[in-house]
Fold these 4 entries.
Entry 1:
Amino acid sequence: MPGTRRQGLHAPAHARRGTATRRGGSVSGEDAGGGVSVSGEDVGGGSVQGEDAGGGVSVSEEQPAATAGAARSRETPAGSSSRAAGPRRGRALLRDVVHRDRTLTAGGAELRLLVLACTPDDTTAVDLASGSLVRLRVPWPAGHAPDLALFDVVEATLADDPESDDLAQPEAVTVAAPPRHVGSLQGRRVRRVLARLVTTRDDPLLGFHGPSAPYWGFHGLRPSLALIRPARGPQLLRRGADGSTWVRFGWARDDVWLPVEDGRAARALAASRRDRLSGKALAAALGFSPHYLLVALSGPRGGHCYKICAAVLPKG
């Protein structure tokens, strides 16, 4: 009918853009102005999910009343991975971080960290309180492989004797137990953290020229970690002699080749069935566009410490 057609054409704009229904205590809606949605259901415990439209980082919390006590009482079995049952994201992970000028290194100190690389030798992370790079020596249980992922947020307690006196690796500390996983970060919050850590190209990588230096030549005055933005590249290569993975990139005027100890990058190169990857092909193999390289100094090997690539990282 004509009247019906006019009503549809001239219906209020807000009625077409957003809807709201209420059924059994549930409410859902869409804000047409900003594209941010909130949904919740009143079931005694309640759940809220939202998206931060400013940076694309989501925050979610869910704690039904019937299971709240059980969730709080869960404990990680001895010798197993220490992962939280309900990991948090975004602002919830940073809300209670007390900012400091330096990383705490006293025995028993508790740190909240953002993981950048994890190997059996050590876990490289950012101390969220100070913004400094830290190397954690973790006593992983026998037969339990390190399982922390990129941009995981963990809590770690330093051992009574943190052993923070390694002159070649001044950022290294020993923790009392495997770190406890509490959530993960992504988006603009990660980008902010990483941007503050980038090393300038004014000095040689890790403070000295060449691929290695004798262990006795270190006095705790040079860093053993550097987050860098390559001037050219990077390019992943497989060396034919032993099948090892290397990364090639430009740093200032140097053409740098470093062995890669990032398992994910090595697997990506192997899965491609190619001997070298760069540009779009490398981004497709990794699942992200490589933006940073985490360069580290190895432990002494035959009396020398070597520069290695500990991780190939996205922008955030």
Entry 2:
Amino acid sequence: MSEAKLHLDQSMLDQADENLELEDAGRTAGDAAEAKPKRPKAGVNGSIIAGIGALVLFALWVLSVRFLKVPPYILPAPEAVLNALWSGIAINPTDPQGYYVPLWSTLSNAAIGFGIGTGLGLVLGSLMAESRTVEKLLMPYAFALQSLPKVAIAPLVVIWFGFGAGSKIAIAALLAFFPVLINSFTGLRSIEPERLDLMRSLSATRFETYRIAKLPNAAPFIFAGLDMAVVYALLGAIVAEFLGAQQGMGVVITQAQAVSDVAGVFAALIILGVLGITLHSSVRRLERRVVHWAHRGKP
């Protein structure tokens, strides 16, 4: 009788152990499911939103012209702007009467100025981040230069560098310089102290610490500055062309304004707007390739 009772108690204990094992397995599976990172929900494509916004803007444009009777010297009809745009595009690319030659002149000057301005901004920002003495020496003058209205500086730059490409490149470089300077300085100074301690424990040189630890940490900041600088450089080249130039999109706009060709002005502005969006998208795409670790898990 006692043996049967012992056998029954042992069976009950075995069954309880099995139930506990099943519960533990269920908890482990549940914890693993909760710990598994959830994939971010796919949002609405940005291109779709931009397209919808463009359609809404175009619809408001058409309604303003057709039903509100806005005068054409204030807001030209969409078909007039499209005709002006087509007349400048459907032409021999080497013809100076079209948009290709002026656009190339503006874009090339802006690109050279962008390269000079961002290069100087990165070098000086790095020097200021590495040396407190250089920071105290250069930072006040950098902010003083940035606070000056560029419209007031531009005529002086044209006088100094002439009406050729030099003045356009100089103003483009001036506008592209400050965003990269500040962003690179901020990014290099924002590195965690633990990373610097690790580099010191590895007996890394100052340049190795800059190249391996500081520069990758500052890369998202630098690309944010490049994103602003590329548009500012284009703006600087156009502003310089307004003041005096032989060719460029600024010259195209000035000539259209002189003959009250509002549709031509709108056509040139559309081209510049598309160019600005293209440059911004190019910088963002390059950032995703270079600073890929900063975009992991993002849609």
Entry 3:
Amino acid sequence: MRTFFLLVFISLVGLAVGVGAVYYGDMQKSGTNVPLPSFKLPYKSFIAGTGIVEALSKNIVVGSQVSGIVKKVYVQSGDSVKKGDALFSIDDTNTRINLPILEAAVHKASVRVQSAKHQLDIIKKMQKVSANMVTKERYAKLLDAYNEAKANLQFVLKKRDALFEKLKLYTVYAPIDGVVLRSNITVGSTFDARSKALVLGSGSYNVKVNINEFDAWKFKKGAKAVAFIRGNTKQSVSLDYLYTIPMISPKTDITGSPTEQTDTRILQVVYKVNKTPDFPLYVGEMLDVFIESAKGK
């Protein structure tokens, strides 16, 4: 019996020691948490807002006037491009197959023009010898045949030129100097007018700042602003005011803060990054923005 109670006692002691060890360990972990970063506020009086990095050109969803299977891809995400650089090509086999037919039609029409001109030249020479050798009806008929042959040649040439222009549409080119923000295009995939597989943007950036409607009255156009990189307050960028979107709208960009209110309405103000920083900025990145308010001047 003593042995039984002794075992029970030892078990309880072991359990107590285990619980204590776990509790003590948790206390140590909570005590070693990294402190929240602190930094010097840029202004004495300010408006705090959340900024979203945007391309200066806005996001350009590249489209095409033709659809089909992608034959070649010349760029990938992150590539820098110049205006006019090829981005990708669509298979043009079904359209190009008409080119030999039109080339043959052009050749045939050219032969007809040459033949009609030759006959007309003969008639003109005969008229010079004697005006009575050729009737007016005969001359008019040959002249009409020549003009008709020329018109037909011009028509066929325009059809061929139109085909050449259409074939150019099967290669899509960069509309601006910029960066490929996203490319999901692959060889063999289908591309049509509704595709959003390729997005371009300029290499310069704007920051769209969301200001709580309760702080909107404090904001003055042209106010200075500084944006800080989340997670590294030592990295910041100065911002120049561009314009205000004069509409209070529901907030759609969620920061993930546990105290964030999702039913907030905001005023949106657009600033330009006035100097390219020595650290990367990414389109869609969230920044902590501080705008100097009127009281700080």
Entry 4:
Amino acid sequence: MCDGRPEGERAGDVPVGHVLPGEAPVDQVPAGDVPVDVPVGDVPGGGAGVRDVPGGGAGVRDRRAGGAPGGRSPEEAREVGVGPWPGGPDAWPRLAGPGSPLDPRYDPELLAHGDRRNVVDRYRYWTVEAVVADLDTRRHPFHVAIENWAHDLNIGSVVRTANAFNAAGVHVVGRRRWNRRGAMVTDRYLHVHHHPDAAALVAWAAGAGPDGGRLPVVGLDNVPGSVPIEGYRLPRACVLLLGQESTGLTPEAQAACDVVLHITQHGSTRSLNAGAAAAIAMHTWALTHATPTP
């Protein structure tokens, strides 16, 4: 989410091309620059950078020097997920008891060797296809779109948050190739689409709503004329459209929106980065329309 000033005058919170300490520049990470809809391998050790906690949530992994809580070694503290299914193959979940075919939702490799992915408990040991099929039965009817003109590092974060809120789809507008680093493989569980420009996104949205109707496009940027998101009732079925980090929504994207909302700033900064703005917008939608997941 940007501050509405002309390109070249903005000083976004995270400049385009910024690299965190210890990370390689994007152009040195080939896996982060791949076309949409091309699966990439899981990250060793689960790849999520978080420790699983009861209830399927995630907490920050303990990185303090000198070991881990409970007397565990740092190696043990870094372990995520679960080990092999207790009891071996004879105890694996099957359709009709011992000797019957394996429940097709389960992955034999994960059952045998453990599941270190960053997934909630209900999806432990499930195949990716089974997880996607189950999520598809309860997708929320909002979509998230983000403009992609300069290989924005925030797109992966937006994708990961869209997975957390079980968005109906993610739409990359502009360049087909996008930076997947922050997605942490969560795009596997989403439907990711590409549109060459804002006009193409609007053309798709014209018939993508309930019963073939139109999906309204809601922009996020603090530009002149934008409306505070606080107190605004987001449509249940809609597209949340975000712009590129530091430059915000392009004029074409702003013109395509039914309304442009901004997140009120209470400190000294004029803007939030696109990843944070997307998370706030999705949570605002969820507070109005989502019900707790069983």
